[in-house]
Amino acid sequence: MVTAPSQRQRGAAVAVFIAAVVLAGSVAVGLVLRANDVRLYLGGPLLAAAWDPRLEPGVLAPILVGAVLLASAGRVVGGMSWPRLLPVTGVAAAAWAVALALVDGASGLTRGLSSTHDYLNDVPRVDSFRELLGGYVANVPADSAAAWTTHVAGHPPGTLMTFAALDALGLGGAGWAAALCIGAGASAVPAVLIAVRVMAGEGTARTIAPFLVLAPAAIWLATSADALFLGVSAWGVMALAVAARARSDRLALVGGVLLGLTLFFSYGLVLLGPLALAVVLVRRSWRVLAVAAGGVLLVVAAFALAGFWWLSGLLATIERVSGGGAAQSRPALFFIVANLAAIAVAIGPAGVAGIGQVVTRTGRRTAVAVLPLAALAGIVIADLSLLSKGEVERIYLPFFGWLLTATALLDERQRARWLLAQAGTALVVQVLVRTSW
């Protein structure tokens, strides 16, 4: 008779094997496409990163930080009080992300944000928020007289407004922008832990904490504005989860407002809807859902009154993206599969193994499975929409923390090995390729 732990180990191994095959196949097909002059608009055949193996002094940072985090994970998670554990995991996540970025030196923290295609390039153009919002959509088309840079045109105005506000406070430049993104992204770890504690208990939340901290996704947490989106959205979902349990209108409104704000950071974050619905409706909290929806509408209405209508921005962005060279050159079928391979890299082998447990009959019946299943639903919709072909290791960052909650289902006897595999994967990816973001 096969025991439950044996079934979990076998299911995890099968999930990782399938992911490895999809990953290897995607890389192979990507190389063939490039050899046949198909432009993928990526630095490599899969990730937005160029093959660039390097062993520079900066590699010592993630080795040392990773070793400390691995060695202390069990003791810290098991013996630390809950109020103290939350900020410690946030700081640990930031330290791991920064350490990985330092493989490329200090510039590794700011290279992506300093790109001429990124938000900071357009910050000097912002004289007032009212003028920005009123004329935002007119500047989205690539052939407009004052077209926005690639990332600004591809997103609502929230991120540009945030960096412009920093600049107005005397905190301009890539350094401060990176600090904000890293801090916000790392704060998502305690937010996810609180939500998991509410839905599946403190023991489960403690179990997943090290996996959230040491995930390979940290590579992009320290280098892109998507980490900001991750942080804001994570606290929004957390507020809804706590509101649903406490039947709190105030928290429901806070959650709705935060999730409403995420819609003005990235159009794609509307696909966090399944996750927001799941954490509320799992407790049949219809009143909380209604109040949260009101919070979202308040944000949408405020932006509309200020001159920016979300739907008009989305349609203008879709038109620019679909008419661009990347959208026309990138093969749709390849990226439907390759996106999944890139996600596997970002959540690491432990995340893949956990998802494998979630989709089995036994894993699906556990309370914690609600979170990764809901996040997975949003990702599948995004993938099939063909509006995100490539670069999803960065674009889907707000979903990854919720996918990683599935690590709670891994066999307890193997968790230390899975955690080592997470840290090792992050280090190998960071050392072998030079990411664009």
Describe this structure in words.
The chain is mainly α and 437 residues long. The protein has one domain. The protein is 68% helix and 1% strand. It is built from 21 helices and two strands. The protein has helices spanning 4-35, 60-79, 82-101, 129-135, 150-153, 158-168, 174-200, 202-213, 218-221, 226-246, 249-262, 273-281, 286-306, 310-323, 325-329, 332-358, 361-364, 370-385, 392-395, 397-403, 415-432, and strands spanning 49-51, 433-435. Strands 1-2 form a two-stranded antiparallel ribbon. Helix 3 (82-101) runs parallel beside helix 8 (202-213) and helix 7 (174-200) runs parallel beside helix 10 (226-246). The longest helix is centred in the N-terminal third of the chain and has 32 residues, at 4-35. The relative contact order is 0.16.
What is this entry, summarized?
This protein is mainly alpha-helical.
Descriptive terms for the model:
two-stranded antiparallel ribbon; mainly alpha; 2 strands; 437 residues
Number of H/I helices: 21
Low-confidence stretches: none
Report, as a whole number of angstroms, the end-to-end distance.
Answer: 49 Å
Number of E-state strands: 2
Structural class per helix/strand content?
Answer: mainly alpha
Helix and strand sequence: HEHHHHHHHHHHHHHHHHHHHHE
Specify the biggest β-sheet. 2 strands, antiparallel
Q: What topology, given as strand order, has the largest sheet?
A: 1-2
Q: What would you report as the Rg, rounded to the nearest angstrom?
A: 21 Å
Helix content: 55-70%
How much of the sequence lies in strands comes to under 5%
Overall average pLDDT: 93
User: How many domain modules?
Assistant: 1
Shape estimate: globular
